C-alpha cells in the first residue's frame, strides 16, 4: 500500500491552478499532523477548489483501491467530489452533506484497463454555508479490490 497522507505521505499532490481557491493544511485536534481542508467561508457559492494526486507508478491492467477519510462539517458547506483522470466528465464519488461533524471513510475502486489512471482529483465546491469546512485526510492506495467493511 502507498501512504498518500499529507503529514508524512510519499505522494505527489498538486493544487490545480485553474480553479477558484486552494486547499489548505489544517491542524488536527489532538496533534498528529495535519489534513487538507477548505473552510466554508472561502470563495463564493459554486466556486471550486481542486487538489490533484499524481499517480505515476500504477501498473496497467490491475486494480487498486483508494481509501480516504473525509468530513463535511457545517450547514450547507458544499460538495466533495472525486474524479479519475481517465473519466473526465462524471465524478466517481460525491458527497454533499455530513450527518454530523465526524470523519467518515470513502473508498473508490480504480480499474486499470487500456488507459491508465494517472491522477485522482479531490474537488471541493463551495456551498451557501458560512461555517464549517470540507476536509480530506489519510489517503491510502492499496493494490487489489477494496476490502469490505
From TrEMBL:
SMART domains per the UniProt record, alphabetical: MAM
PANTHER family found in the cross-reference section: APICAL ENDOSOMAL GLYCOPROTEIN PRECURSOR, MAM DOMAIN-CONTAINING PROTEIN
InterPro entries registered for this protein in UniProt: ConA-like_dom_sf (IPR013320), MAM_dom (IPR000998), MAM_domain-containing (IPR051560)
Gene: Egfl6_1
Domain MAM: 2-148
Pfam families assigned to the protein according to its UniProt record, in alphabetical order: MAM
GO cellular component assignments: membrane
Protein name: EGFL6 protein
Domain of life: Eukaryota
Amino acid at each position: 500500500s502507498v501512504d498518500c497522507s499529507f503529514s508524512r505521505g510519499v505522494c505527489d499532490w498538486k493544487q490545480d491552478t485553474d480553479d477558484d481557491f486552494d486547499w489548505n493544511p489544517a491542524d488536527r485536534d489532538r496533534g498528529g499532523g495535519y489534513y487538507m481542508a477548505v473552510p466554508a467561508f472561502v470563495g463564493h457559492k459554486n466556486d471550486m477548489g481542486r487538489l490533484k494526486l499524481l499517480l505515476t507508478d500504477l501498473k496497467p491492467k490491475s486494480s487498486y483501491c483508494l481509501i480516504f477519510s473525509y468530513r463535511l462539517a457545517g450547514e450547507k458547506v458544499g460538495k466533495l467530489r472525486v474524479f479519475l483522470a481517465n473519466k473526465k466528465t462524471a465524478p466517481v464519488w460525491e458527497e454533499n452533506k455530513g450527518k454530523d461533524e465526524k470523519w467518515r471513510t470513502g473508498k473508490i475502486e480504480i480499474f486499470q484497463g487500456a488507459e491508465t489512471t494517472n491522477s485522482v482529483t479531490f474537488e471541493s465546491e463551495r456551498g451557501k454555508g458560512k461555517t464549517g469546512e470540507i476536509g480530506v485526510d489519510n489517503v491510502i492506495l492499496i493494490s487489489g479490490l477494496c476490502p469490505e467493511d
